[in-house]
Amino acid sequence: MAKKKGEGAETGSGPSASQVAEEAPPAPAPAPPPVPEADVEELPRAIVRRLVKEKLSDLAGKEDVNVNKDALLAFGESARIFIHYLSATANDICKESKRQTINVEDVLKALEEIEFNEFIEPLRSALEDFRKKNAAKKSGSKSEKKRKAEQDLTGSQTKAGTQEENLVESG
């Protein structure tokens, strides 16, 4: 199809504007809606409720303690912010030591750095108790596994002996 003078581009000078519009790539698909931050990082409400009620019950004695839904949300959000702040501080301490893995000492130093010194000793004793319980569980499970293995071995030997006796009797 021949073009008349003044109608579009000169011959041999590339595609016309209408051809460019037709060949343009399709617009990218719309991005999915962002996930609200609270849904991603919110602490489980049941755990927050249990922790708050247990602590308040310990302090109040036998009284039943009720906590408003908004108060539980405030406790959860406060805990989340504290965890973020503590972990960021511990991460900085870890990086200063040219390591990539945060350890217990980094967390304890972070508590000291953010001036929560009163948490350090209770945390140390809680960690010690946790380690003792885990060590007991591990040693208990190892001895249980060893006992089961011995029973299996004894049971296997007994079955083998019975099979041999049956062969001798039938032969």
List the helices and strands and how they pair.
Blueprint: H1 17-23, H2 37-41, H3 45-60, H4 69-96, H5 104-113, H6 120-170
Spans where pLDDT lies below 50 across 5 or more residues: none
Percent range of helical residues = 55-70%
Would you tell me the overall average pLDDT? Answer: 78
The CATH architecture of the largest domain can be named as: Orthogonal Bundle
Q: Outline, from the CA principal axes? A: extended
Give the ordered list of helices and strands: HHHHHH
- In CATH terms, what is the fold-level topology of the largest domain? Histone, subunit A
Most strands sheet: none
Number of strands: 0
- Assign the CATH superfamily of the largest domain: Histone, subunit A
Strand portion: under 5%
Structural class: mainly alpha
Question: Cα distance, first to last residue?
Answer: 104 Å
The number of domains is 2
State the name of the first-level CATH class of the largest domain: Mainly Alpha
Q: How large is the count of helical segments?
A: 6
